[in-house]
Design goal:
2 domains, 10 helices, 47% helix, alpha/beta, 12% strand
């Protein structure tokens, strides 16, 4: 077959496949829901039901909850508010707190409208953040941008664009947008990465400073630490009462303790996993959010 004929045949095949493929889903409007997921193709996906835990059930992080709630309330009222970095041990309630605070503030503002939109941005889509901000800059609705488990490794340079977007760009952060992120690392970089940068750079201090300065773009640093046994039991007790899981307190705590020892950790996440197991054994459904 001659090359022109082959090209024409392939073009026809491509056109046929395009006709058969479904059209790309349309982007949701900011008024369609209170929560969204941002996709790198420039699309907002509405989330009708957010998986979350009530704020009152988050034990052992009272100061962090109060601080983030106050910051979010001010933002919802149109007052100045800070970007927030929630950092610390795994499973200690960082992302749960962001979602719970969003729900709490929106419930308070239900009477007079003006609910906040929560937009989740995946770590791998950080490079598209300027595109998302350009979209939100034209909207009036106030939005919390939320990136869970934010961190940077190796030669990843996308942190530079995040720095510019948060505070340093010409346009700056829109007044209708605040950025909340969770991370296991206070400076968003692993220690060995920063030490390697220090040992190989011509000016070690400047090399490390460039990376550490990313976390400085967050006005609020909220630290989360592994909970002690008393706090762990308080979390378990709170879940059991909330979901009506009836068991003798001594037995409940003994089983919860055995569960945490098997996992080698005590945290809100471990407590929730124990409660799920307990509810399953008792034949009781759990409803979240």
């Amino acid at each position: 077959m001659a090359e022109p004929d082959l090209i024409a045949l392939l073009s026809q095949a491509v056109a046929a496949l395009e006709r058969l493929s479904p059209p790309p889903p349309a982007s949701a409007a900011l008024g369609d829901a209170d929560a969204f997921v941002w996709h790198a193709d420039g699309r907002l996906q509405a989330v009708r039901r957010v998986s979350r835990i009530e704020l009152a059930l988050l034990q052992g992080i009272d100061l962090q909850a109060r601080t983030l709630l106050d910051n979010t309330r001010r933002f919802a009222r149109g007052l100045p508010a800070n970007n927030a970095l929630l950092w610390g041990a795994r499973g200690t309630g960082k992302s749960s707190l962001v979602k719970a605070v969003h729900a709490t503030v929106n419930a308070e503002r239900e009477e007079n409208g003006g609910a906040l939109a929560l937009i989740e941005l995946h770590r791998e889509d950080i490079a598209t953040l300027p595109r998302l901000l350009a979209l939100l800059r034209e909207a009036r609705r106030r939005c919390i941008l939320f990136c869970d488990d934010l961190s940077f490794d190796g030669q990843d340079a996308s942190y530079k664009s995040l720095k510019a977007v948060l505070e340093g760009g010409i346009e700056g952060r829109p007044e209708t947008v605040v950025f909340y992120a969770t991370s296991n690392r206070r400076h968003l970089m692993p220690r060995d990465m920063m030490e390697n940068e220090r040992s190989t750079a011509i000016n070690p201090a400047e090399a490390v400073e460039e990376k550490v300065s990313l976390s400085d773009r967050f006005g609020l640093w909220l630290g989360f630490h592994a909970c002690d046994q008393q706090t762990y039991f308080a979390i378990v007790d709170g879940y059991a009462r909330h979901f009506g899981l009836e068991m003798e307190p001594e037995r409940l705590r003994a089983e919860a303790n055995a569960w945490s020892l098997a996992r080698g950790a005590r945290s809100g996440r471990v407590a929730w996993q124990f409660i799920q197991d307990l509810a399953g054994r008792l034949g009781r459904p759990l409803t979240r959010g």
